[in-house]
Design brief:
The complex is a heterodimer of chains A (290) and B (122). Chain A has 10 helices and 8 strands. Chain A has 290 residues and is an alpha/beta fold. The longest helix of chain A is centred in the last third of the chain and has 25 residues. Chain B has 6 helices and 5 strands, in the order H-H-E-E-E-E-H-H-E-H-H. Classes of the chains: A alpha/beta (290), B alpha+beta (122). Chains A and B meet through helix 5 of A and helix 4, helix 5 and helix 6 of B.
């Protein structure tokens, strides 16, 4: 193989966030409409490697993914060693808006998966004017835990092994082996208690069942893409949003699981590209009209 | 079919290595029939029909014949493709030492998947 670099560039961003200084790792590729990507619980921005490496996306979109604090190559804030990490809706929204301001993103498209798919519903409800379009991957209004979450963080069970093993079945059965295991590796690498802390948002704090029907897609279009094999956010969870939100555009992706962009980027792009095309066209019409 | 478990697992060196710190016996219940699977440092030492009404095992995996049969398809239907998926939808009950099961979750998932028509890693 001839050695080559990918077009992805990663840098460390220093910013004040949630009242404290943070050092965040941010990757981006491409140019055009900003597309801000949010990774799943307990993982990091590497999940979007397939999107960032596809010229069909990067010719028209500036794809950006940041590792949330505590995740990937972002640091936890100073003092973390005395804290229990617990993600809340309020902090998650603030973090996304702070990153957008720091990067001076003008009405980006935001695309999030799982916890990211949940928080984009909060953004659709509370900040629709800040986004050109919202894409929820594996998005549901709520998720009940289906195992004792304390297994994710206890000294007598290996956190990396159990996190990887717990999410393995959320990957579609026909995903290419290399992408499947890359997806699990990210989970195996997570810091102690971080996946569990994210699930506090996913299973408790981030519940929007009582508000989701109020999403107004005339203020910001909402696209939902969910994998058929996901038993964490099930196709039924996504279709429930589609039934309750007028104008929401939902598609169930055949054979895919909970991490579409990471477990099978090639297949996922067949579903994502038409959505991005529609966003691009609407964006052009808007700028022509303005 | 269950009897093939030992030869399939023991022929898989990587899987045996992943279980190298595991010595236990668990009960695999398929409908009304039970098998006691004994593991010795990752190798399946024996797979025996549950003979006595009172036998020792660390934990039991209990599901209907139909649920296991779907799980053991080459590409199972959604919800039947993974042990944790089976538990979430209440097709599978895991009873006993859950901590042992969770500690070695990848090993147990892969051991049970060895009985698939053509094994895919789960």
């Amino acid at each position: 193989m001839t050695p080559r670099y990918e077009p992805i560039v990663g840098r460390y961003l220093h910013l004040d966030m949630l009242g404290r200084p943070h050092r965040l790792y941010v990757e981006e590729a491409g140019q055009g409409i900003p597309l801000l990507c949010l990774h799943t619980a307990g993982s990091d921005g590497r999940q979007y490697r397939g999107i960032m490496n596809d010229p069909r996306v990067t010719d028209n979109f500036r794809v950006i993914a940041f590792d949330m604090p505590w995740h990937g190559k972002s640091s936890p804030p100073a003092g973390w060693h005395e804290e229990e990490y617990k993600l809340t809706s309020r902090d998650y929204v603030a973090m996304i808006l702070d990153v957008m301001t720091a990067l001076e993103l003008d009405r980006p498209v935001v695309m999030g998966c799982s916890i990211g798919g949940r928080i984009v519903l909060h953004l659709a409800l509370d900040h629709p004017e800040k986004f050109r379009a919202i894409v929820g991957l594996q998005a549901g209004a709520h998720a009940e835990p289906y195992y004792d979450l304390s297994y994710l963080h206890r000294p007598d069970v290996h956190g990396g092994e159990v996190c990887g093993a717990l999410i393995s079945g959320l990957i579609g059965p026909n995903s290419p082996s290399a992408e499947r295991w890359e997806t699990q590796w990210h989970y195996m690498q997570g810091g102690p208690g971080v996946f569990k802390g994210d699930l506090h948002f996913y299973t408790r704090d981030g519940d929007v069942r009582d508000r989701v029907a109020k999403i107004d897609t005339t203020r910001c279009p909402l696209f939902l893409l969910s994998g058929e094999y996901d038993y964490s956010c099930t196709p039924e969870d996504t279709m429930a949003i589609a039934r309750n939100v007028k104008g929401a555009d939902a598609t169930i992706m055949k054979g895919m699981g909970h991490f579409p962009m990471s477990e099978d980027p090639k297949n996922f792009l067949e579903y994502l590209l038409p959505v991005l095309d529609r966003i691009k066209t609407a964006s052009k019409q808007r700028s022509t009209a303005a | 079919m269950i009897e093939h478990l030992a030869e399939r697992v023991n022929a898989n060196a990587a899987l045996v290595r992943r279980g190298q710190y595991l010595n236990t016996t668990f009960l695999l219940q398929v409908g009304s029939e039970g098998w006691l699977v004994t593991i010795d440092r990752g190798r399946i030492a024996s797979v025996a029909r549950e003979g006595l009404p009172l036998v020792d095992h660390a934990f039991a995996l209990r599901a209907s014949r139909e649920a296991w049969s779907e799980f053991w398809q080459r590409v199972p239907k959604p919800g039947f493709h993974d042990l944790i998926a089976l538990t979430k939808f209440r097709h599978l009950k895991v009873e006993g030492d859950i901590k042992l099961f969770m500690t070695h979750l990848r090993y147990f998932k892969e051991v049970l998947a060895q009985l698939r028509t053509s094994e895919v890693s789960a």
